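Q&A log
Question type: sequence-to-structure
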Amino acid sequence: MEIFVYLFFALFSVLNPIGTVPIFVGLTQDDTQKERSRISLWTSIDVFIILLISFFVGKYVLDFFGITITALRITGGIIIASSGFSLLNGRFNKNKGINKKVEEEIQVRNDIALTPLAMPMLAGPGSMSLLITYYQEHHSTEEIIASCLAIMATSLVIFIILRSAHYLSKMLGTSGIVAISRIVGFLTIAIGVQYIISAILSIIRGI
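Response status: OK
Response body:
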């Protein structure tokens, strides 16, 4: 249960689906309610698949390229902390790869569930490195089951939030969403810093 709770909140902080609400609203403002529901569902499914692949396959990618877990912790910590700083500074769109050119390209495409919503807006390098590192430290059967359930729960919450995005946007307003994103940003920075500290302590112990 402890593993489930920790990974769920860690993923929720790094993915920050609340911060995606205004972007989702902007990209789907001309769509019907049924179409928005479909996009929300497929976005959550795509996120689930991407995170699951990162969790199980990431270790072998590291081994293939000869990347140590310590190096990944430091790199992942920097990426996660950087995402947190972007949330605190109100630069979420830029940090998630959404700019004017990308928005124009999206308008002429029929499906936005996989890109840019699922990736890179939600499941980006930060969440991938988080899961790869987590698998290295928790790979017993019980821990793997708990981790998969946490990934599934996170994807389900993403669906609920995106499904209610237009309602949340009206209820919370821009200021409310920004405030929540900054709180999540603070937690995200803390997670990133903790990963860097863990890597440095690991190096020190090995000396």
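Response note: The radius of gyration is 17 Å.
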